[in-house]
Amino acid sequence: MMRNTLSILQKTYDECYMRCSTAVYYESQGNEPEAMRCWKAALEQIYDHNANKIPRDHVARTQTERALVESLRQLELQCKERIDLLEALRISRQEDVVQRGSSLSGGNPTISADSSDQDRGKGYIGGAPIAEATAATFDGTATRATSQAVPVSQSRAPGASHHEDNASWP
């Protein structure tokens, strides 16, 4: 049974990782609905795995099993986080469109199809940048924020030293 459990864990992880990679690709292409579908499919597969494929009383016996279980847990958290962020972004954009529409039409909300309005809201929730998902993000090796986040000069705490930017500093 141990070999079977290990292969089930590995297969589930591989399939979920592929779905998450696909979601990251769709996010990078600006296709948020398809990215959302991929994140949800990966999360559903993890839930199905936890509910139906591994016995509830199963304890990982090898280091490999423990690593796979932990990796699946991390993928689950990443899926939940990206789903929440994409949903919040979608809601924020809808509220922004309704708010702009009601202020322009004197109380009657209308939907603006101005492409500059859509581009301006991309990657932001209420004017604040959201983190960009990368393939490395969900495997735990690195994260990367959008390039529009905060300029370096504004990212320092008040009174912080600027010496690390000075190339001539010893």
UniProtKB/TrEMBL annotation:
Residues 97-126, 142-170 are annotated as: Disordered. Residues 100-115, 143-156 have a biased composition (Polar residues). Residues 161-170 have a biased composition (Basic and acidic residues). This is Uncharacterized protein. The lineage of its organism: Eukaryota, Fungi, Dikarya, Ascomycota, Pezizomycotina.
